[in-house]
Structures are given as structure tokens and as C-alpha cells.
Amino acid sequence: MRQLIVNADGFGFTYGNNRAILEVLEHGFIRSVSVNVTFPAMRELPALIRQFPHVSVGVHLNLSVGPPIMPAWQIPSLVGSDGEFFGRDFPLKAIKRHFNVDEMVCELRAQIGVLREAGVRITHWESHQGRHLFPDFFQAAIQAAIAEGIPAGRTFNYYPILPAGSRLWGLLKYYSKHPGYLFTHPLGAIRMRSLRQAGVLLQDRRLLLEPLGSDAVYRPDAWQVLLDQTPEGVNIIECHPGYVDDDLRKYARLLETREKERQLFSDPRWLRRARDAGVEVISYHEMLQQRKGRPNLP
User: Fold this and answer.
1) Rounded to an integer, what distance in angstroms lies between the CA atom of residue 67 and that of residue 251?
2) What is the pLDDT of residues 116-131, one digit of tens each?
3) Which pairs count as long-range contacts for 222-227, CB under 8 Å and 24+ apart, including other chains?
4) Closest-CA residue to 103 (of 127, 130, 129, 72)
């Protein structure tokens, strides 16, 4: 069986993101959302839960941009003099092991707690820009997720979607253009083995549209190729529909592409196209039901 989770990242990040995500959820192709709870737009979450009770809701763990949940004085290693996370300086500070792991766990559990208090049944977790792949963040995220009983995460077992032709040749061509991925993609796979050992349920693969072009995330033809190439098992891909507003300009790098993704997924035909391609669109709810009591898949 070929199954696909399409997860909209960043509800709560900005009001423009919220507006776009609520619009695209209407059409049923996107059935999963991750919520960033550290920004004021999080207050619109009850509208999402009320309108779309079938949509699975996860936490978009964030230690790198904007304000924290905890008071700054309780997590001094995580924030700058302005009381916010370190933004673009996060990677270098993470490499230098600047952050206190206990403070990380405290802040992450506080973020999860915000969703709990909102009455959300949290199905999954991942992080803003995949920052939890940095060692200390990774350990803190596992501790927080397990302590809070969140059953599933997002895999970093990448499966590139390639142009028509030999898959082996396509992979060689792709990685020759992106040699850095020869390090980061295996690192992600290693991280995923650690997650499985910790009991976190994951998808089989994370589909990657980048080989079809830098604009593939909002090109209808690229998404049709993705549906045609979706392999057997449970697969996932994230998307970022949004309206550009001042908050997005302040905190995000992805701007106009969010508008184009919103336009792409405003087409109500994607659910039918998935069915025509033999792909079942699911949420984390279905994935968890299928894997309840079964061993985690490799």
C-alpha cells in the first residue's frame, strides 16, 4: 500500500500562515499540521481544531527563532539579550555546545504543555528547520517527547523524487550536484535509528522534491511526479503554505514560495489526483492506528 502524509508546517508562526493553512485544509489533501506555539498567532489554534477535527496536530519544536515560552532568566543559555532565541546564530552555537541541555528540555516541555493545555491530542513532533538534528537539541527533543508521551516523529530517511529515467543515474547526478548531502542525509538516517530505538514511531521515507528543481515545491507537474513515484509504505512530505506578512518577513527565509504553495494546494483536485495515482492520503492518526502494537519499521 502506498500512503502519503502531507504535513503543513508552521501553524501559529504567523497569522498569514494560519490563514493559508486553514484555506488549504478545506480540500482534504493536507491532513496533518505542526504547530509553533511560541508566537501570538498560536491563539488561533482552537479554530483549526474546531473546523478540522480529523486533522492530526503535532508540535513544531522551536529553539532557534523568536520568543520562548519559559521566562528568559530560567533558560539563559538559549536566549540573547533581547530575550529571544539566537536565530541564524543557532547552528554555530549548537556546534560549539553553547546550550544547556536541561534548559532545552525545560523549554521544549513547556512548548508541548501549551498544546496540552489547548486540549490537543498531540500525534507527532519535529522541529523548526530540522534543528533537532544538532546533537544536544536531538537528545533534549527525545527526552521531552518521551516524557510527554508523544508517539511519533518525522523521519529523516530521505527518498529523492527524480526525473524520469534510471533511478541510479538520477541519484548519482543529484548527489554530484549536492555533495554535502552525502554527509547530512546519512547523518539523518543515523538519527532516525536512534529515534526508533527510543520507541518513536516514524514513517518509512521522507520524500524530497528538490531533485526536480528549486521551484518544485510549488510546481503542479512536480507534485504529480511525486504522486506517481510515491513508494510502498508510509511516506511523508512537508509543505509551507502561507501569506506573507510582517512577522514572516522578520523571522523567516521562505516568503514568496509560501504564497505559491498556498496557490498550489488551493486546487481542490489534488486529493482525486492522489487517488488516481493509487496513493492513499493519510494523517498521523491513521499511521498510529496501523502501527499500534506493531514493531517500528526500518
Assistant:
1) 11
2) 999 999 999 999 888 8
3) 222/161, 223/264, 223/270, 224/273, 224/277, 225/161, 225/163, 226/161, 227/4, 227/273, 227/274, 227/277, 227/279
4) 72
Which positions ≥6 away from 266 have C-beta within 8 Å?
23, 24, 27
Residue 294 confidence class, pLDDT cut points 50, 70, 90: low
Domains of the chain by range and CATH? 2-291 (3.20.20.370)
At residue 239, φ and ψ (nearest 5 deg) are -140, 165
- What pLDDT digit, counting tens, does each position of 134-143 carry? 889 999 999 9
The identity of residue 47, as a single letter, is A
DSSP three-state, residue 298: coil
Which residue, among 186, 116, 106, has the nearest Cα to 141 in the 3D structure?
106
Residue showing cell 478545506 = 26
Q: What's the whole-model pTM score?
A: 0.93
| Cα gap 191→294, rounded to integer Å | 21
Provide the residue count of the chain: 298
Q: Quick check: 161 and 208 in contact, CB under 8 A?
A: yes
Q: Do residues 169 and 199 touch, judged by C-beta distance below 8 A?
A: no
Q: What is the pLDDT of residues 195-236, one digit of tens each?
A: 888 899 999 999 999 999 999 999 999 999 999 999 999 999
- pLDDT average, residue stretch 22-36: 97
